[in-house]
Amino acid sequence: MMTERIVSTTCPFCGVGCKLDLHVKAGQILKATSPYDAVVNHGNLCVKGRFGWDFIYNSQRVTSPMIKRGGRFEPASWDEALDLIADRFAETYRQHGPDALAAFCCAKATNEDNYLLQKLFRAVLRTNNIDHCTRLCHAGSVVALQMAIGSSAMSNTASECVKSDVMIVTGSNTAESHPIIALQMKEAVRRHGVRLIVADPRRVEMVDFADLWLCQRPGTDVALFSAMAHVIVRENLINRDFIEKRTENFETYVKTLEEFTPACAELICGVPAEDIVRAARLYATARRGVIYWALGIPEHTHGTENAMSLIHLALLTGHIGREGTGLNPLRGQNNVQGASDAGAMPWHYPGYQPADDPAVVEKFARQWGAAPAAHRGLTTTEIVSAAGAGRVKAMFIMGENPLMSEPNLHHTAQCLQKLEFLVVQDLFINETAELADVFLPAASLLEKEGTITNTDRRVQRVRTVVEPPAQTRPDWTIVCDLAKRIETKLGVARSAHWDFQSPAEVLNEMASLVPAYAGITYDRLEPEGLQWPVPTTNHPGTPILFTDTFPRGRGKFHPLVYKPSVESPDAQFPFILTTGRVLYHWHGGTITRHSQIDHAAPEPLVEINPSDASHLHIEDGQWVRVSSRRGAIELRVRVTDKSSRGVVFIPFHYAEAAANLLTNDAVDPVAFIPEYKVSAVNIEIVTERSEA
Ligand code: SF4
User: Fold this and answer.
1) What is the CA radius of gyration of the chain?
2) In terms of Cα–Cα distance, which of 538, 543, 502, 548 is closest to 518?
3) How many domains does the chain contain in total?
4) What is the pLDDT of residue 688?
5) What is the band of 692 on the pLDDT scale with cuts at 50, 70, 90?
6) 505 CB-near residues (< 8 Å, 6+ apart)
7) pTM of the predicted model as reported, rounded to 2 decimal places
């Protein structure tokens, strides 16, 4: 079939933000390609971008609002559904106060969708109980970066890796989670002679390209990276000029490094001392060293400290503020950066402006006509617990699926079941939507206009490739409609602030309040987007941050102490479970499990090391029961040396064996991120299903 038109948009899956050309005929998408001159991905797409777009045509897509009556969803009109929500939210607000309400925003939705949902909850319902999945992935990185340098985004552009001399990649299965960035890293190694250090408890694909693999025990990152810092200081490989001019608290920090000798760290993390020394020398003596990390670093009860130990390496060596250097937390979902920028967080208004600063509250109240009290709201895990305790009574969940993504899912389900009223806005009835009182059918990212912000801060357009089916609507229009109805029910003066004619107008309002977006307009985003900060309308964008200074002035060293994970293996639960992604799926699976690419990875597998399998007399493909103190699941085994001895891996995409039934809901006390990466588990053969 011949293509009638090609619509250029941005991939709806991961934070790399690849440019996608979708070929359309008779209102149907035929195929996806990407132009060779695309600045982010140079014409490359992974399997999700190339083939995963067909989820929009899945027959299970919900295309009408639904209201639950007598325990079953029944189709309803938009007026019925939105009026019911407005009634119930207004009633909850009047009877129990603003903080009895809460919202989960969505890292898959646009900046405009997220900006408006947080505005609805802040300006109309007067609560800061707004969060999204950044709490569950990079919250530890965000807090550490804010504390150390005052900004939490990637400092550099991912494709700059070819300009580095040495890369450290840690806690990141880059080849499966950020495949096109992995492609650029492989090119950097193979074609540009860049040296690669991978620090990861699993033998991830990038190990095949590495000079050095540091296979640390899960949860021991502070010991490993502080020992590298110890070597850098002991061998005087520090950048003294950078430390004097651009950092503070160095002398205090250095004293605390004394105990982190490589020999001592080896006992904790299992990495040979000589490899720690080699890695430290390689990184510190490079002209340009860069660090990339993902969820393996922050998803711990000491995730903030883990990220801080990496930040210290850059501050000691001055490997920041120049091309090919930097601190780069790779963001997961396509718009987790943008949702954070747009204020989908309980402690910050849009643009990371503190929610407990009266001057900030005053600024937003002037623009919006109202704002909540100047105190922080609850995080995702706190909202779930507050629902369980009856303090949060009504919730709005846009595009997230906490019954797949939260830890300790039995507990999460018990808590959410106690809500008096739950609204879910999504494409499919997922595990969380099963509990909802009202379901609102949203348009997908391929069926609406908007912007999303990728992992290296590039704000890019998404476009209406095909029209939204049946009664589905773009999230931003649903939120505006609902906001007006709630204002009416509450009897507050109807403001003009919800009469947006287009998402471009919504972005204009956000840009007027967020200095980093001040110079961004839809016109300026053609053809390749802009990397924030863009302070004025003629500013070209900022590929490299911190060239002269940090947002907090000087970079600050924070002394660290190694703390073990909350759970350690024992006789009852002798293995460490770590969780993550596979190439073919994305997060809770709401989208990719409704795509044809599900056939490539249709079932969950637990990966186990050959020697552990042999010890347990388990063969590849056999069914096993994996149990933790919180639950149990049954799934098949894959015997592979990707898993280290004593460490098993389960992907978190599969509802039929949800890894988060097992994970620990203990949280980092500073960032409130759960300890997804270390849970003690047991494995037993399930004999009756072994031939299934
Ligand atoms: Fe889409 Fe990410 Fe794959 Fe690029 S790497 S095609 S953004 S899923």
Assistant:
1) 24
2) 538
3) 4
4) 73
5) very low
6) none
7) 0.95
